[in-house]
Amino acid sequence: PNPNLTNGNAPFRKPFPACSRCRNAWYCSSACQKQAWKQGHKLICRDWTKERSSSSAN
Length: 58
Fold this sequence. Notes:
Layout: H1 30-57
């Protein structure tokens, strides 16, 4: 799933909130969010969060 788009079968609605950890990914449904987390967003999210923390410390 593309975290930035609706699933094509549903009419566009306001997306779910961004990932509460990294705030870089938006999802069209909670099912899409869970699937993306299992497919690797948790790793990307961790890296984005580390990067943001280190850049704000400088």
